[in-house]
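User: Need the bound-state model for sulfoquinovose-uridine-C1,5'-diphosphate:
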Amino acid sequence: MRVLILGVDGYIGWPLALRLIQRGHEVYGADSFFTRRRVREVGSDSLIPIKSMQERIEHLKKRFSSTVNFFRGDVSNASFIYRLVEEIRPDAVVHLAEQRSAPYSMIDLKHATVTMEKNIISTLSLIYAAKDIRPDMHILKLGTMGEYGTPNVEIPEGFFEVEYRGRKDVLPFPRNASSWYHWSKVHDSNNLMFANRVWGLSVTDVMQGVVYGTRTADIQDRSEFTRFDIDEVWGTALNRFCAQAVGGLPITPYGKGGQTRGFLSLEDSITCLTIGLEKPPERGEYRVLNQFDQYYSINELALTVREVYAKEFGGNAEIMHVDNPRVEKEEHFYKPVSEKLRKMGYSPSGDLKHDLKTILTDVERYRQRVDKLKKVIMPRTQWK
Ligand code: USQ
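Assistant: Bound-state model below.
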């Protein structure tokens, strides 16, 4: 299959390219290196050093004799995405090229605007490029479980049956996001749903949980590592907790720590996206997949990191509940459904404690870099 990955330089984009090349797909990629620049903007860097795109491309040629056909550019620029779709004529496009940090989007108006522009306009441009040039290609778009928020009822996969004043319908499940970033994904979902309705585009809208991990099965040596962010803006909960443990900083559940989210390993994220590509929706279908392995509360995760770090490394990590910089429920019901991917063949790859041992081992290797990044780990970005 000819696949175009938008955001191929990112945490998920790069290991996805490795997996698809291994599986014999023809892989094209685009990136503007937005994340590399914006992580530096907040004084941070990937904890695990990563190669330049040029080095990555050369490395793949040696290992597989096939590589990513790379295009540098910004997919919120319509002429760039039109040119890509025209030249490549992909069977599928995976859209990962969005601003992915909730805290970054909440810094101020400028950052909220960049997030809305990059995210909404890139998806809209891709929609139009598909309609005008290649209406039968599959758009696989990365959304987020955070689109749904934390309602006091079960969360279905995109749609649910409602009965109201004696009549029934199947409607989109209400979205109730908790940052400008998460809302930008809601707007993308609405736009994709509408594009599907008017032009019959084939869409998979992935509601993905929080991803953790340093590796996938395909990552064999240091030149293949993907980025791994641990700072308060770009790092996500579990990855940050591992770095905090190794760096001798307290593990920081925000507020009461009862916030519960769906989580999955990087390995599982790549597996699920590959399944979504290799088992596309029907032509003209808009399909929503809830993509996570299990849900955990932040407190459970903090305790598990502390336990694994003590057992495997003899370390003694402190847990410190800090004032929550976000506006979110700290204790709530949470029961999302994730059935479709499992029916399509996904079975989770490992267990959390085993994965944590691997992450902590990799983070230990870069302990000196954790020390250098210490000043950007504790929370600073406020929602209020
Ligand atoms: N949290 C802490 N302590 C920390 C960091 C986070 O308690 O040191 C809490 C947050 O308050 C939040 C939860 O952990 O309740 C998750 O926060 P996060 O920073 O791990 O993840 P989030 O901001 O929700 O965003 C991340 C990715 C985003 C993706 C999303 C999936 O950055 O790209 O879409 O996870 S989900 O959370 O399901 O919406």
